[in-house]
Amino acid sequence: MFSKILIANRGEIAVRVIKTCRRLGIATVVVYSDAxxxxxxxxxxxxxxxxxxxxxxxxxxxxxxIIAACKRTGAQAVHPGFGFLSEKAEFAQRCxxxxxxxxxxxxxxxxAMGDKIESKKFAAAAGVSCVPGHxxxxxxxxxxxxxxxxxxxxxxxxxxxxxxxKGIRVAWNPKDVEEGFPAVRAEAAxxxxxxxxxxxxxxxxxxxxxxxVLGDKHGHVVHLFERECSIQRRNQKVxxxxxxxxxxxxxxxxxxxxxxxxxxxxxxxxxxxxxxxxGQDKSxxxxxxxxxxxxxxxxxxxxxxxxxxxxMIRSAAGEPLAFGQEDLSINGWAVExxxxxxxxYRKFLxxxxxxxxxxxxxxxxxxxxxxxxxxxxxxxxxISMFYDPMIAKLCSWAPTRTEAVKGMARALEDFHIEGPxxxxxxxxxxxxxxxxxxxxxxxxxxxxxxxDGFSGTEPTPLQLDILAATGCALQRVLARRLGSRRTDWxxxxxxxxxxxxxxxxxxxxxxxxxxxxxxxxxxxxIAWRPGLAVFRAVLDGVAFTAEVAPAAEGFTIRHRAAxxxxxxxxARSAELHEKLPAKAPADTSKLVLSPMPGLVVSMDVAVGQQxxxxxxxxxxxAMKMQNILRAERDATVKAVNAKAGDPVAADQVLVEFA
Length: 658
Ligand code: ADP
Ligand code: ADP
Ligand code: MG
Hints:
Helix 4 runs antiparallel to helix 5, helix 7 packs across helix 8 (174-192) and helix 12 packs antiparallel against helix 13 (424-431). The strands form nine sheets. A nine-stranded antiparallel β-sheet has the order 14-13-10-11-12-15-23-21-20. Strands 25-26-27-28-29-30-31-32 form an eight-stranded antiparallel barrel. Strands 3-2-1-4-5 form a five-stranded parallel β-sheet. It folds into five domains: 4-103, Rossmann fold (3-Layer(aba) Sandwich), CATH 3.40.50.20; 132-201, 2-Layer Sandwich (Dna Ligase, domain 1), CATH 3.30.1490.20; 344-455, ATP-grasp fold, B domain (D-amino Acid Aminotransferase, Chain A, domain 1, 2-Layer Sandwich); 461-577, 2-Layer Sandwich (Glycoprotein, Type 4 Pilin); 591-657, CATH 2.40.50.100. By secondary structure, the chain is α+β, with helices and mostly antiparallel strands. The termini are far apart. The chain is globular, with a radius of gyration of 27 Å. The chain contains 17 helices and 40 strands. The protein binds adenosine-5'-diphosphate (2 copies) and magnesium ion. One adenosine-5'-diphosphate (ADP) binds next to helix 1 and strand 12. One adenosine-5'-diphosphate binds at residues 9-13, 81-84, 163-165, 236-237, 290, 294-296, 388, 390.
């Protein structure tokens, strides 16, 4: 076994690997860029080596610097995490040449499987069912058009080296191919330094189901069952679970057998994942193999009781697998929510900034469920523009799916982040949806359920009570500070107005009598003081958490995905309030605003130009993603306020129409 391992990665996965090494008594070294100098991973590792500037191309992607860091610190092995160098066969080979053990599969398996075009050729030859398509490179738009025609629309244009949902575009018609092919090519060249493109049939509304495999250097390969990762936005996973609600034991065994056969065909000798798209009828087609640890590996760990990082280290050290397929079984159900710095209210666009507040729920066993949170950040850390905007991976486990989903909903309620925009309210909305609870998943889920984007959910009757009671408790604390003993108020939640009377024996309890309904809301264990953004209490025996902020005349309160303005007014103010005209939102229909902070890649219109609806106005880049902004109607350009190369802020006016 190794005595010192270097981790060639950052963020939560670096922290994840350190935790296992500590448990196994292995010393750790992390490498870090300028942006990560004060990171949690650097703090936790036994040693840390600075390897360069913040852009990954100058640090985490430079093999020479990683090898030099191993030599300098005497690390015997490298864990690459995911992303960065994890699927680069040349890097694995280079390690071997330098006498350093790569904690991952052998270079031959990576090159056979680590590239989408190559792996599809290989899988087809090994008898694995594949998505119909053109498995080969495509030279130009003309060829892309003729191939798409042959396959039949819709098709998917994909970068062979793609990953993380980048370098993928669906084309429904020739025009989409004309636009999409060069865009995917440019994105692939920029993000992966490899612009090979292929095209395959786009399977509509499928499910994403993948099999975790594990091999050793002695010819053994087992599978650790499936994960379902159908909840995706921009073709990137956001909620995953294990096992899949779709599979029956026969289908599970068939998929597992194909995955193991494919892995065995390339002498696979580490942890890896064979991804499939599956029809609702349980038919399945091979998508790609990820020859590395997967982001969502914790859900598999939670249902199998295995530590995948430990298994990878043991395999790399030459130990044979300590168990066979017959020793493995599924225990309970696990769900993972990826918490991202992104704005769900604005098409999930990436966000950046300092984590002014970062308060995850406590890990460990709760009432009927278990919480695990994998993160690489602390309060005060910066989510920078240089890397993936993932903040944390929150997991829940319980004996059944229903309880695991409930546990996740509760854990999300207890996750508080301030600073960058984040997707916690969105994740909470999904956990409360009947369709998700019943397991009717598809990769189109987000598009189906939020066709006009996410704008929060309408409060349920219970949530109306929670919002009203919380507003009353806040008001009582504030009023008492001003010496007021008033007991009769009117609470307004959105448009719903209720007359209430307060009764309170102590600071930690409040009974709010709903005068027109003949019932009371009884709050106990109130934990809040002015200035706090998190309000905790127990309502009629059930503990809850809400996020609260002062707003004009009252508060903004969010419980899960329901957010409302809550006003607690005197009867007189309530009457006046009702008569106030509703404020119309500012008219932005003649403006093109930057949806996020980023860089202008191209400005495609000029002053005086006539544009048609749907025409490209400009292209922005943020977090290595290109975003095309289009005209929402026919118009004439009156002003252009930015040019290619300009950095722009969120909501900055880029173009004005007459
Ligand atoms: P990545 O390397 O970015 O993970 P994948 O090839 O695994 O790329 O695709 C990412 C996601 O895109 C899949 O999980 C699936 O939801 C969707 N997808 C990929 N290929 C197809 C396809 N041919 N038809 C339908 N959906 C697809
Ligand atoms: P999966 O493992 O499920 O296929 P994705 O494809 O969504 O997950 O994510 C893998 C991607 O994560 C990489 O391609 C890379 O863009 C990104 N990544 C790389 N390193 C890190 C890191 N340390 N933390 C978070 N994300 C990372
Ligand atoms: Mg994939």
